[in-house]
Amino acid sequence: MDAISIRNLWKVFRSGFIPRRRTVLRGINLDVRQGEVFAFLGPNGAGKTTTIKTIVNLIRPTNGDVLIFGKKASTIDARRRIGFLPENPYFYQYLRPVEFLQFNADLCGLPRRVSRTRIPELLQLVGLGDRTQLPIRKFSKGMVQRLGMAQAMINDPDLLILDEPLSGLDPIGRKEFRDIILDLRDRGKTIFFSSHILQDAEMICHRAAILVNGEVRRIGTLEELTAQDIAGYEISIQGFDADRISGLGRIIATQDKTIFIQVSDQTGLDRALSEIPARGGQIQSVIPRRKTLEDVFMGEVQKKS
Amino acid sequence: MKPIAIAAIALTSFREAVRDKILYLLLFFGLLLIATSRVISWLTVGAEIKIIIDIGLAGVSIFGVLVSIFIGISIVHKEIEHKTIYTIIPKPIHRYQFILGKFAGLAITLLLNVIVMSAMLQIAIFLKTWSWNFPVFRACVLILFELLVIVSIAILFSSFSTPILSFLLTLMLYLIGHISYNLIGLAQKAPGTLLPILLKVLYYVLPNLENFNLKTAAVHNLPVPPGFVWASIQYGLLYTAVVLLLSITIFQKRDFS
Fold first, then answer.
1. pLDDT tens across A92-121, in order?
2. Which of A93, A297, A107 is nearest to A212 (CA)?
3. For B4-63, what is each residue's pLDDT tens digit?
4. Are B90 and A84 within 8 A, CB to CB?
């Protein structure tokens, strides 16, 4: 059974006095397996947040199904197993962190004896252990994000849904957040997060989907996404003058007596491999340059326009 | 499990209302009015106590209504506007629990509000007559139920429209609510068959807030028909329940985007 299973999800918004239809999601299909870290990528306005809100029951689908551990997302049973961190969260300003987490624990129906120990643990985990007496209105953006993570984990959920969890954090905060996510993964939790910071996604996810204009364009493991097309090969050559490279490839760097050239495909590589020794050069190494997630992402986004 | 969630939401919305400055502002003016009723009563000869009761009850009622409308229209809307609702609805709770919790929090706020103001009024009366006034107490109880009806209407409007529109609509229904009892008389006199039915339907749909008005009876110490208070309380609870049900129905379907 998958942690999240989305089947043919459509969302059409009607807004205004004379309703105008705006189609945001166009038949999304997506499976998130148990125990994996799944990155949900896409440019602004692609429908990431709408999809996420449908998963957590903030938005009702126009058509299609969202199942969480096999149960419909609109049921209480499904939501018992999820924790949700919204994008740029905002909480009751007049509460202190402990009061706020107690409120969330009560919403989840946690017994007091459980919440009494879990709340300090969570505050410690997200790095707010020494700020328990500060009212939320005095929190910085990073601290609010940390508190948001704590409330998402209050019911010890099996599935965490995080909307842009790393935005608004400084580099240290991002590192800490990544560590929290990886720690959760090690404890067997499933993590589904959206992001536009591809490097962060690349560092922690198993699989990713790329959403463009309300459609899932690509989905797969990082290797599947990035290895499908090799962006080219880097060849390092010694004992060779730069002017004798002509026609073989593009010179990307020279260092001491080593020249680095790049060829864009297999034919180019074959030609270089036979020509360079013939011209008296020594090939030191050939490194296939895989596409980065960013290359794949940009490729998909540009297809649209 | 369910009562815990409702109680938790009620407690936070009560906390929020109590921290709202508008509550204190209105409470202050209400108390000021009650306090000055004694001063104003000096202007009249013989009927001082009537003036105190009249102005005092008007204070309890008007400032109670203002508190209900102002806090009622903002309490749900603020949650959506500030996106605090984004972490509440995804929790394992039903949406109706959210509305009921919000309503319960406001009901407690209004209860305290009416208790404070009516206590002040009783003190003002006590200082004049050296006795507590039961008809005033009775009138205040019904004002509380009127406020519950108004706050449920405010919540209903705020669950789908903007605060300004909610304010106007709620205020309008409050004003109509005090003259709507005329509709039943009008229905009897109206010609044709369709019009009387229409007027009757309108009468039952619109709130009849005169059912909660025992102010005149308290001022002039008039007798109240037996069972009137109890019937009004039942009417208030029923009307509030129906309006809350409507809010919940709207809330069930809406998207938070």
1. 888 899 999 999 999 999 999 999 999 999
2. A297
3. 889 999 998 888 888 877 778 778 877 887 778 777 777 777 778 888 899 889 989 999
4. yes
Residue B256, SS3 per DSSP: coil
What stretch of H or E contains B121? Answer: helix B95-129
Residue A150 near residue A125, CB atoms below 8 Å:
yes
- C-alpha–C-alpha distance, residues B122 and B115, integer Å: 10
Which of B86, B160, B252 is best to mutate for the A interface (most A CBs within 10 A)? B86
Q: Which residues of A touch B90 (CB under 8 A)?
A: 56-58, 79, 82, 84
Residues A277 and A298 occupy one common structural domain: yes
Q: Which of A155, A136, A156 is CA-nearest to residue A144?
A: A136
Residue B1: the pLDDT is 47
pLDDT band at B98 (very low <50, low <70, confident <90, very high): very high
Q: Do A89 and B83 touch (CB under 8 A)?
A: yes
Residues A211 and A235 in one domain: no
Structure-token pair, residue B66: 């203002």
Q: Which domain range does residue A241 map to? A: 229-304
**Cα–Cα distance measured from residue A165 to residue A109, given in angstroms and rounded to the nearest whole number:** 25
Q: What is the pLDDT of residues B176-197, one digit of tens each?
A: 999 998 888 888 888 888 888 9
Q: Are residues A55 and A169 in the same domain?
A: yes
Q: How far apart are CA A222 and CA A205, in angstroms?
A: 8
Into how many domains does chain A fold? Answer: 2
Element (H, E) at A222: helix A222-227
Of B71, B148, B75, the C-alpha closest to B107 is: B148
Considering CB atoms only, which of B5, B9, B90 is closest to A57?
Answer: B90
This complex has an ipTM of 0.84
Question: Which residues on chain A place their C-beta less than 8 Å from a C-beta of chain B?
Answer: 13, 50, 53, 56-60, 76-77, 79-80, 82, 84, 86, 88-92, 94-95, 103-104, 106-109, 148, 151-152, 155
**Beta strand extents in A165-248 (DSSP E only):** 190-195, 207-212, 215-221, 230-238
Q: Are residues A81 and A164 in the same domain?
A: yes
The answer to whether the beta carbons of residues B119 and B136 sit under 8 Å apart is: no
d(CA A160, CA A50): 16
Q: CB-based contacts of B114: which residues, under 8 Å, 6+ apart?
A: B60, B64, B140, B143, B144, B147
